[in-house]
Design goal:
binds S-adenosylmethionine; 4-stranded antiparallel β-sheet; transferase; ribonucleoprotein; 3 domains; SET_dom; SETD3_SETD6_MTase; protein-lysine N-methyltransferase activity
Length: about 450
């Protein structure tokens, strides 16, 4: 690992705008792959930890820029490789990318989303270029590619169980929580939608070059790359993609070694700074210290990826946390199931926009669930109307819905305990396998949450 990290740093140091605080370094972290730790000294609020120029980030702009080096017909003002720069020859005329990227037009590239363009480009530069060139040409990005996780490191992600033909974990799909199942379906539909767009382009490349590689193998590469992008991208304004929120992303070497903490506004924070002139209009990506002062050697430098539950973390990033205050349970399905036996109550809730989105988190049942349960139990439309308008507090109802909420909590606890027992009984169960560990962690998180509310 050290050699690859050293190569990455040497490559980044080719830019005078790269900065790495000498008090930090990359280390292996148990159950989290690699991470960044403090070596010695202190990191205080606003101190720069890492700063990476746009020349070393992969995003919609930088990919257009690099493709335009090989295809001089690509014309996107302020982003493309200029004639002045052409004097520095960075490739030879027989570079296969001249032929490969010639299939693009400006319009065809601009139509792609960031995920589609980045996936295609990374497939080409990382997976296909070695084959197109008989291992004689290295991509500019090779030091970055070399530190990315292997597909095995991403094996906990349910959408990989679902979509990879090689996954050994398909059995686990029926053990997903309903929240994870829905999340996995959403991602699967994004993955297939993008593949439909990308596949004809890749097939064209396969026809152009005679290589020992087929579309099914590239599909597996695509899944790998899709989740590398998904789990490592950072938010960044992309001028060319103003109206497409999902495309506002950038991949930033070294910064993407930072692991997640559940705490918001405590540890480091990212900021894009536009102080340097740069080729592609994207800014300098800077990580600075937050309110918390780092002073313990080997302590991890962390930041918060967002207020995410374990279900979310597993599906998007392939990990879970043993303790996560952002866990919650969607109980809409359960509540709707029995409330719908009363059509008057159901109609009232629908008319007043209180039908569904019932959840439980550390504070208990959410307001919507309390309203729905209160009406179902008391049929007191007048008082529930006042509750909805905020004229009275929910205290009046809490005692009245106590039995039903307790029943719901007990039933859920029983259901999750059974799920965990049956997971452990599976033939393929291995305690140390992250797929099992993570799935069980979600259920354990639910059990902890429900127990905590029950005991309140
Ligand atoms: C942006 S990368 C962070 C660097 C990564 N650990 C690596 O080895 O390159 C995000 C990935 O790191 C891992 N990760 C991040 N935070 C974690 C945490 N708190 N616990 C376990 N794994 C974590 C997950 O695999 C996630 O997909």
């Amino acid at each position: 690992m050290h050699e690859e990290i050293d190569e990455l740093v040497s490559w980044l140091q080719q830019s005078k705008d790269f900065y790495l605080n000498e008090k930090v370094a990359v280390r292996n972290i148990e159950k989290a792959g690699k991470g960044i730790v403090l070596l010695d000294g202190k990191i205080r609020r606003n101190e720069i930890v890492i700063s990476v120029p746009s020349t070393h980030q992969i995003n919609f702009n930088s990919v257009l820029y690099h493709i335009s080096m090989f295809n001089r017909n690509i014309d996107v003002p302020s982003v493309i490789y200029s004639d002045d720069e052409q004097n520095e020859t960075l490739y030879t005329d027989d570079d296969p990318r001249v032929k490969a990227y010639d299939i693009f037009t400006t319009e065809s590239l601009l139509e792609l989303s960031s995920f589609q363009l980045l996936s295609l480009y990374i497939i080409a530069e990382w997976k296909l270029l070695p084959k197109w060139s008989n291992d004689t040409i290295d991509s500019y990005w090779t030091p970055f590619f070399n530190v990315w996780p292997k597909i095995n490191d991403l094996k906990s992600i349910p959408a990989i169980w679902q979509n990879s033909n090689l996954s050994k974990y398909k059995t686990l799909l029926s053990y997903l929580t309903s929240d994870s199942e829905n999340h996995c379906k959403r991602l699967t539909s994004l993955i297939s939608h993008d593949w439909i767009i990308m596949k004809p382009i890749i097939e064209q490349w396969l026809r152009l070059f005679d290589i020992q590689y087929n579309i099914d193998e590239i599909y597996e590469d695509y899944l790998h790359i899709y989740f590398i992008i998904n789990s490592r991208c950072l938010y960044a304004e992309i001028q060319l993609k103003k109206d497409d929120v999902a495309s506002k992303l950038t991949l930033v070497p070294y910064v993407d070694f930072i692991n997640h903490s559940t705490e918001i506004d405590s540890f480091c924070y990212p900021k894009i700074e536009y102080t340097h002139a740069n080729i592609t209009g994207a800014g300098q990506f800077v990580i600075r210290g937050g309110p918390y002062t780092y002073e313990t050697p080997n302590e991890q430098i962390l930041f918060n990826y967002g207020p995410h539950s374990n279900d979310f973390l597993l599906n998007e990033y392939g990990f879970t946390l043993p303790e996560n205050n952002w866990n919650y349970l969607d109980v809409s399905f359960i509540l709707k199931d029995f409330i719908s036996t009363d059509t008057d109550v159901t109609d009232y809730l629908k008319t007043n926009d209180y039908w569904g989105e019932y959840t439980i988190n550390l504070d208990g049942f959410n307001y919507r669930a309390i309203v729905a349960l209160s009406l179902f139990i008391t049929k007191d439309y007048k008082r529930v109307g006042k509750l909805i308008l905020g004229y009275i507090s929910e205290d009046y109802f809490l005692n009245k819905i106590k039995d039903i909420t307790l029943d719901i909590l007990n039933n859920l606890l029983m259901e999750f305990q059974q799920k965990m027992d049956s997971l452990i009984m599976l033939d393929i169960y291995v305690e140390t396998d992250p797929c099992f560990y993570n799935l069980l962690n979600i259920y354990k998180g639910y059990v902890d949450l429900l127990t905590c509310i029950k005991n309140k």
